Amino acid sequence: MRLVIAQCSVDYAGRLNAHLPLATRLLMLKADGSLLIHSDGGSYKPLNWMSPPCSLAEVSPEDDQTDAGITAIWKVTHAKTADELTVNLYEVIHDSAHELGIDPGLIKDGVESQLQKLLAEHIHLLGEGHTLVRREYMTAIGPVDILAQDASGKSVAVELKRRGDIDGVEQLTRYLELMNRDPHIAPVTGVFAAQEIKPQARKLAEDRGIRCLLLDYDAMRGLDDTLTRLF
Amino acid sequence: MRLVIAQCSVDYAGRLNAHLPLATRLLMLKADGSLLIHSDGGSYKPLNWMSPPCSLAEVSPEDDQTDAGITAIWKVTHAKTADELTVNLYEVIHDSAHELGIDPGLIKDGVESQLQKLLAEHIHLLGEGHTLVRREYMTAIGPVDILAQDASGKSVAVELKRRGDIDGVEQLTRYLELMNRDPHIAPVTGVFAAQEIKPQARKLAEDRGIRCLLLDYDAMRGLDDTLTRLF
DNA sequence: TACTTCATCTCGATC
DNA sequence: GATCGAGGTGAAGTA
């Protein structure tokens, strides 16, 4: 990895065009040829960048560019999409290179799939007397997250999202239409369950007779802890 | 901005829990207190990070941690969410600090908002005799990008995308269903306009009687230039 | 390899 | 501040 702190201006041409005026920035050149341009603020997203696979070529500045103070020009081109990033370097304040080696990578815990598992384990959260039929119940157009039965034995299809928006309601609607045409399983009611449900999604769901259910991940995990403590 | 290259292991606790095993990485400490941890590959997303507002505190390692080779511990805590990032530093290979100043920021060109503005200004691209009613026409389920009238005075709802795929057609379909239930504005026809329309989206749109319109951003901008030259 | 879905999404615009 | 939609989305899993 090569780290360069320099005054520079940058132009990007690809899906869109973008320009960075002259300022002091960090240029991070990774081992795979990719380049990130960071300022001293903002979040993790660089001001501009080029993703791998790409290649960097150093170009000699023209006379008028040299007169303008440009000491070097980097042209980074994407191997496939012809996107191009041009960095005009002025004063270079720091330049160092370091061998990092391959990273073992990030280990994650606590994401979406666990929500499904937790709801399946605590299916009573759907309401009194509900029982689990199965997770990932397969239909012709894809798997329903959870299929259950209510106290009267009627089928309940659950669509699960971390954040519930309109797309999820549309998806559940398609499942419900399909399943309600199948006399073996009809009638099927729908539950849209998420940690957070956007107002527009809630309105659409309720217009269509789909029940909305807010999930509390920590509370659900707490139920597990309670069980663990009990046994 | 402080740049540290060091052997380190990292733990994050917040929305999820995550762990990075011992390896050599770049730690980028920005002026606003935020921290990015980058490896020598991947894309622009760091392996782990803490977004501002947050604060870093250096903690003394316990004796057993010192024995294990830990020379310093950074605890970065988010000011609002109580997310926490712990970096255990082993061997430090590089450590430098640089004054970058405030960045003037990125100037973008060619995004959807400009497309909308351009199409509204050149509404005749929808067809002979079309007139603009308004941009961002509000409905109960969200704003229609452009509402126009055709030569006969009938309403035309335009959904605008840079890249047109099925989601956009679904969105426009919802608007059309809603608006066509309103006797004050019905009947409303639909136009799906984009710089690029995926074949599946085109088929779905045409099956539903929605007209597809390919937009040429450069040509539309050219129309502006022509006007500028004329006046 | 292409497609779908998720994300500690980020980021801006708007209410 | 909350919300909504777009992204040069990226990244991971699946068919």
Mean pLDDT over the residues of chain A: 88
CATH top level class name of the largest domain in chain A: Alpha Beta
Largest interface chains and counts? A-B, 57 and 57 residues
> What percentage of residues of chain A falls in helices of 4 or more residues?
10-25%
User: Could you tell me the number of beta strands of chain A?
Assistant: 13
Count of spatially separate domains of chain A: 2
Main location (chains A, B): cytoplasm
Subcellular location (chains A, B): Cytoplasm
GO molecular function, one term (chains A, B): endonuclease activity
Enzyme class (chains A, B): hydrolase
Describe the structure using short key phrases.
45% strand; alpha+beta; five-stranded mixed β-sheet; seven-stranded antiparallel β-sheet; DNA-binding; Trna Endonuclease, Chain: A, domain 1; 231 residues; elongated; cytoplasm (chains A, B); homodimer; 2 domains; 5 helices; Protein Yojf, Chain: A; Endonuclease NucS (chains A, B); hydrolase (chains A, B)
